[in-house]
Structures are given as C-alpha cells and as structure tokens.
Design a protein that fits this description.
Strand content of chain A: under 5%
Mean pLDDT of chain B: 71
Number of strands of chain A: 2
Helix content of chain A: over 70%
Order of helices and strands of chain B: HHHHHHEEEEEHEEE
Largest sheet of chain B: 6 strands, mixed
Order of helices and strands of chain A: EEHHHHHHHH
Radius of gyration of chain B: 24 Å
Largest interface: A-B, 84 and 87 residues
Oligomer: heterodimer
Low-confidence stretches of chain A: 1-7
Largest sheet of chain A: 2 strands, antiparallel
Strand order of the largest sheet of chain A: 1-2
Low-confidence stretches of chain B: 1-12, 89-100, 103-139
Number of helices of chain A: 8
Number of helices of chain B: 7
Distance between the termini of chain B: 66 Å
Amino acid sequence: MFVGDEVLDYATLRQDVARAVARLCPRWMVDRRDDLVQAAVMRVMHITAKRSASGEETRSLSTSYLYKVAYSVLVDEIRRLRRLCETDLQDEAVAASASATEDPERKAVSKEVGRSIQDCLIGMKRERRLAVTLHLQGHTASEAARILDWAAKQTENLVYRGLADLRKCLLAKGIRP
Amino acid sequence: MPAGEGNTPVTDTRGLNERLADAFQALEDTGGADVSEDLRERIWLAVSGTLPAEQRRELVERTAIDPGCAEAWRVASELWRASQASAVGGAAVGAPGLTSRWTPRWLAAAAALVLVTGIGVVSIVSLRTPRPGDEFRASSGFVVESLVPADTALPREAFRLGWTPGPEGSRYQVRATTEDLQVLVTAADLTAPEFVIKAAVLSRLPEGASVFWQVDVSLPNGERITSSTFITRVH
C-alpha cells in the first residue's frame, strides 16, 4: 500500500508483529498466537485504510505510524483475548486450551510472588527500583541505561544491587524465589 | 544518579532473575485498568527514545506498580525491537522514523548522509513502481488477487471465495472475519485456490454484512505471501 511518498509494507509488519508476539506470548495464549497476529494486522490495515480514505492526517501515515498503531492494537488484542479466556467458560476449546498450558496452582503462586515483587520495588531506592523494573521487564543493562539516560556501568550495578535488595526483601516475606 | 553505587561486576544469576521476571510479568493476568490513549502514546515515545529522559523515568516508575502499563511497555518494546531488526535487515522497507532515534550524537552526521542517499533510493523506487493500491508482492512477483468481483454480494448458501492460484504445489490458508474483526472461520493447508464458507457460519450476519477475508499462500519454494484484505458482502 502506498501513502504519500512512503511504501507501507504490511508483509514486513506482519513478520515483525509475529516476532513480537512470539516473544511476548504467555503460555495460556500460545495456541492463539496466529489468531492474535492476524487480528492485529487486519485491524491495523482497517484503521490505516480508513484514515487514508478519509484523507485524515495523511502526512502521519508513515511506516513509524503503522508500527505505533500495531503496538496499540496488540495491547487491545492481548487484553481482549485475556478477557475472553477469563469469561468464556462455556467455550470448551478455550477451557481445554488454558488448562493444557497453565497449571492453576503454579499460576497463583507466580501471581503472589509478582505482587510481593511489587511491594519490594515500592520500598526500594528510586534509582535501583527503576533499573530493576526495566530488568524485570526484559531489558538488558545497556538498554536500561539508554532508557534511563544513565551510564551503562552504573546502571549495571544498580540492577545488581537492586536485585540483591529484591531477593532479601522477598526472603523477609517468606518467599524464596 | 547516586554517587558511590560501586563497580561490583554483575554476576550471572540468570535462572533466578528469569523466574523473578516471569513472576513480575505474570501480574498482567490480573487484568488492570485500561491503558489510556495518552499513556500508550507516551510509552511508545519512551521506548523509541523521543520522550525526555525524566519523563521516561517517571513512566518506568509507573510500570513497577501498574501491570497494565507494564504490559503495554513490553508490547511497545518488543514491537520496537522487531521494527529495528527489520529496518536494519531490509533497506527497501525504509523506516526512517524508526532508525533515527536513540542515535548517539557522533553518528548524526553520518546518519544524515545515509538518509539523503536513502531518500534518493526510495524516490527512485517510488517513481518506478506503479501504485495499484492494496497489493502484496512476493520476491517471486506473485500477487494474490481475489477472483470475487469487487462490490459483489454472495449468497449465504454459496459463499465461495476464490483467488489467483499460486504455482503447482502451493498451499493456502484462509481467514475470514466480521466487520468488527471477530473470526468467522479459518482454514489451513488448502490445495485449491478457493474456499466455501458454510451458511451456518454466516447465519448470524445480517443481510449486506461485510466479510473480511485474507489468504496466506505458501509457495513450493518456502516463500509465504499474504494477500491484502478482501471484502465480500453477504446476500
């Protein structure tokens, strides 16, 4: 599709969405990964087609805009799928899929640990909290340094010390991670 | 940044750290409040490096206590990473807005030179390529087109979708959705370039409703091509 002077490459976008979903996808969503990618890309196409047809803000319909839309759509789709899995108890396929990929007891324990991590983060020094939060979000130390605009070595040490604080805090709560 | 945070090397406690990260990310399942448009926008600007540093830090702080925000951040980060990988690997795609951020100042001059060259290349590509609308090209040149005439309504009892066949040995996958993108049907590993959506599947759609459908073609050489989205109404 062409908009303005830029080529909007949906095939590449689809690959990128699939790659992102593969890394993001929680266990309970594995069986629905393809549907998630497909729905997200189709919604992006729908939104951009509508905006292009209406002539609305045509200058912003660039490749970067496309990825931003895809991000927002993916957020919605993941939330929609989660709601579906939580509420559609009559759907045997969904229930079977969820139970096959998730151990409810393990899931509950994981959530409890997650909430304790939140508590511990709140009580941590701000700099360590920021560095550890990004670490827990899956960022490398160098990515965290870039995001926080701090020196790489210092950010590494903040992560290291922050994780030590976190483990100590969890142990104090009776949680051995 | 606090002084005296030391220079102790980071030790590898990967297994433990991964478990902590898994537990932290599992909080998404509790389903927090909706993530507002404004928050999404700021998250995107943060991961792409456009938001000022202190505002980025404020957002990170929020992700520590807001699972919805944390999830949106992860989605934005992953899509950003994926887009960066594509921008590096596929020059023809062209994503100037995605590659120009997070760039050290010392690279700016070189980047400007590359950008000027890139604009030249993109302009040539744009001039030499016809603009046919929503079409998807494979490197082989094969384009998937609908054989259902545009603006046609098909009867529910014979809702036969058809598309241009690929080379011998091609396999097809079809997905059809409603206008609000609820999946009606998916079919995989088809050997013929056509698919009939059963009347029962279409029974809940009102007269004149649009069905959005799309075809993935797996060529014998392993290449995969995705069609544009076609729209056919129900009669």
